[in-house]
Amino acid sequence: MNDILPIILSIVAALVVIGGLIPVLMKTRKNMTQFPGMRDENDPAVPSRGVGTLTEERPAATPERKAPAGVDVELLETRDALDDLAGLEVLPVETPLPVAGRLARLRERLAKSNSILGKGLLALLSSDNIDENVWDEVEETLLLADLGTEPTMQLVDALRERVKVLGSRTPEHVKELLREELIRLVDPTMDRSLRTQRHADKPAVVLVVGVNGVGKTTTVGKLARVLVAEDKDVLLGAADTFRAAAAEQLTTWGQRVGVPTVKSDVVGADPASVAYEAVKAGIEQEVDVVMIDTAGRLQNKVGLMDELSKVKRVIEKLAEVDEVLLVLDATTGQNGLNQARVFADVVNITGIVLTKLDGTAKGGIVVAIQKSLGVPVKLIGLGEGADDLAPFDAEGFVDALLN
After folding, report:
1. In whole angstroms, how far apart are CA 70 and each of 22, 73, 90?
2. For residues 391 and 322, what is the distance between their CA atoms, to the nearest angstrom?
3. How confident is the model at residue 26 (pLDDT cuts 50, 70, 90)?
């Protein structure tokens, strides 16, 4: 009996210790399930996202930043642990600037960045004696501004005729004459409205395309801000699946203005599938506009261009593609014109977005593209700011050149 007593006492002591640990373990498990980065993967109550699934990243309802439930941020001692929290970070929802305010600011920047074209022409045409040498300089100025050969000849011929008829020329007369001819060349009659009006039972669909490095993802994010400022419900589709950071970049743009993003978990996933799911989600959620961001592709790569055509065809199984916007870097000049021609053949471009127009004096590319394709420039970007994108206005553009 004396030998058995110590054994019994040991068992009782162990049971007491275990009984005390059970509440602690249960509390720890509860906290782990409150934070996805610390969940028990074997728990059947915890859904798995799987590999390659499409997920919809929705912005948080509140604009305030806060720690996830059940997690004490001060206890996280490593950078890896902080990285785990990044996916749950709540970004503040911003209010985009109204379109009218942007236009005035963009015109001021355009006037500074493109003064060589307008002011150079004004100086030449205000000369006391306009001889053939002056006309040669006018022609050279226009060509250097990427106006293109045909539009340049058209403008020079019109100016020659009007200067001859005008007789006496004050600087004011010359400026008005040049303004009228440039506006005629830029063509204010082209329809520059964005087709973003929701249909009776489906959202409007906007497909954004272009080569590498022109700023497509940023343009989609900025355009989302324009549409949100117009009180439209927007959904984004991250169909650029080849650049690892593209989907996260687009999601961040969306979160900043309260717009959800549909994306894939896997780099290199089928972009047509992502685009399809985004449009499907847009139809189910009855949003006004679905915008699809596509991967940058070289215009001379047949396979990549065929894939872009496939993305458009797959979308059209669900809804009409209302806008196909080609994003071009204004600083590329005539090379941008070559890009535009190839993309127009593949996906039927409906509008041009010119970025980095503040970084060039070659404002003539606006005219060259429109003359070549018969497609209007609909949006221009003049800066890196979130609201530095605005609708293109022919008269405002010319006035900025000449002021």
Report:
1. 19, 10, 16
2. 17
3. very low
* 254 within 8 A of 236, measured Cβ to Cβ: yes
pLDDT at 332 over 80: no
CB atoms within 10 A of CB 87: 12
**H helix runs in 4-98, sequence order:** 4-34, 79-86
> Do the strands 289-294 and 234-239 form a parallel or antiparallel pair, or are they unpaired?
parallel
- Residues 382 and 361: their CA atoms lie apart, in Å, by 12
Please tell me the predicted confidence (pLDDT) of residue 302. Answer: 67
Beta bridge partner(s), residue 209:
326
Indicate the angle between helix axes 171-186 and 149-166, nearest 10 degrees: 150
Q: Which two tokens stand for residue 46?
A: 């915890």
Question: DSSP letter at 38?
Answer: G
Token reading at 38: 């610390």
CA proximity to 267, closest of 106, 51, 2: 51
SS3 content of the chain, % helix, strand, coil (to 5): 50, 10, 35
108-135 pLDDT, tens per residue?
A: 666 665 556 777 788 888 877 888 898 9
pLDDT tens, position by position, 287-320: 999 999 998 766 556 677 888 889 999 999 999 9
Helix 115-125 crosses helix 394-402 at what angle (to 10 degrees)? 70
- Cα distances (Å, whole numbers) of residue 139 to 43, 53, 152, 155, 168: 74, 57, 7, 9, 22
What letter would DSSP give residue 73?
Answer: G
244-to-9, 47, 326 alpha-carbon distances in Å: 61, 24, 22
CB 315 within 8 A of CB 342: no
Pairwise CA distance, residues 2 & 77, whole Å: 52
Contact criterion met (CB below 8 Å) for 387 and 96: yes
- Residue pLDDT, tens place only, 72-108: 222 223 333 334 434 445 567 777 766 666 666 666 6
